[in-house]
């Protein structure tokens, strides 16, 4: 009931809803409506009540539970099913498990804290309680497995757009999937797949966003940042997450209808790697040269000083 009421109030985007309209919608008495409003207030919502006008939400608490994520969400299927956990080892692990148990496309797993957050190349991902967005999205696209990396690039564009919409901040992409703000890492994306050689069962896209951290551990404090540090104010995590899901759904539908090309152009517009002299460090060696662009499968093309073009599938990039 509280979730339904919240969704109704949030959908009005700050406009008043009459007590009568709420009681009709919820199928309960006006006294019951008032009790539910009191419950919301106890949970940290500021709800204004004016006689003959009704109720409106004027402040949301910075929570990331199922109710907050779903309230006012306008997507068709991305985030329609949300699994929220307060503390987990990794949202990726839960996503893998429920994807093989038949979770539907668009299911999102989100946690307030990860004790074993996973980054790329087997690195840990710092995921402290209550301050970031730690989420995994389950997709079931009917595309060949070799095209799955394109979804990582699509995700980067969706995240950048969502962040811009909610904060006005402009981020950059460092190939393949680091999102930087003022040169420091703000977001990491980890794409994993359950597939046969010729068929995808599920793609699990893990997104970690540093939102309201004030500090980072010694070992990453020079290279990591948060939206709060850059914007100078606390940011509502649920609103950022909603904007990203809306942007994701639009881009995903474009991708399924028209293929990767329009997404590639959008990605290139944000990429700071392309056209620059870089060093690509892989596990076995390091290559210096000009980043010429990406292929349709998201592979980086690097031209070395002898003019040889190298295809880089996975590496750390330095400028
Ligand atoms: C990177 O190394 O840049 C990728 C980091 C991805 C972190 C996210 S947080 C949510 C999801 N769960 C994880 O354990 N990892 C991803």
UniProtKB/TrEMBL annotation:
This is Bifunctional ligase/repressor BirA. Its EC number is 6.3.4.15. Pfam families: BPL_C, BPL_LplA_LipB, HTH_11. Acts both as a biotin--[acetyl-CoA-carboxylase] ligase and a repressor. Belongs to the biotin--protein ligase family. One of its GO terms (molecular function) is transferase activity. Residues 19-38 bind DNA. It comes from Anaerobacillus isosaccharinicus. Biotin binds at residues 114, 185. Gene3D superfamilies: 2.30.30.100, Bira Bifunctional Protein, Domain 2, Winged helix-like DNA-binding domain superfamily/Winged helix DNA-binding domain. It catalyses: biotin + L-lysyl-[protein] + ATP = N(6)-biotinyl-L-lysyl-[protein] + AMP + diphosphate + H(+). Keywords: ATP-binding, Biotin, DNA-binding, Ligase, Nucleotide-binding, Repressor, Transcription, Transcription regulation. CDD domains: BPL.
